[in-house]
Design goal:
The protein is an alpha+beta fold and 206 residues long. It has a single domain (2-205), classed as Ribosomal Protein L22, Chain A, CATH 3.90.470. Helix content is 34%, strand content 30%. The protein has helices at residues 15-24, 26-33, 38-54, 109-118, 121-127, 131-149; strands spanning 2-9, 63-65, 71-73, 78-84, 87-93, 97-103, 171-173, 176-185, 188-194, 200-205. Helix 1 crosses helix 2 (26-33).
Amino acid sequence: MVKNVYILCIDDITPEMIARVERQLPQRYAQAKRFRFEKGFLRSIGVGVLLLHVFPDLNENLIRKNEFGKLSIVDHDECSISHSGKYVVLVTDQNLIGIDIEEITEIKEKHTMVSKKVFSPEERQWMQDDMSQRFFVLWTQKESLVKAVGCGITVPLAECNVLPFEKGESVDYAQNRWFGATTIYDNHCVSVCASAPIESISFCCL
């Protein structure tokens, strides 16, 4: 299947959108106000904007998070949200699903250190051919997988090889079979992982 992902650029957030979040999701608005910098504020508000776009009658009594931070909406499909750089993304599905977005930035020593901790030897070898992009492919794939599972890291991430996703194949993790897809959008890497096959990602822009 082609997985539709809702995406919002924080530069496109209007005063009316902010006012609606403040009115319908006051706790989300209060959380956003705690950010010192405008970009953090807008990304947090953007989460509320996307939630209200997909679930127009949403109120905070319907929002749940488990002990690992997995988001759910009462009496609705599975839902996952992520933000990075200037974008916020949201995906829903009847199956277990997770999404992650990361702005593609210059590779630094911290990225190399992370790769040694969470990537398998095979993944690190694959990454070397184009480290500037493939680091973020692997990272977002693993993050989206953990979000889809929704119960924390049950197996060390270095022991979970996500390279089969690049071949359209599944990955076994946390006693389930997972499928993934990744794409690049305006210098941001977006990965979706679900318990049902995903052929590609399509964006629904607000």
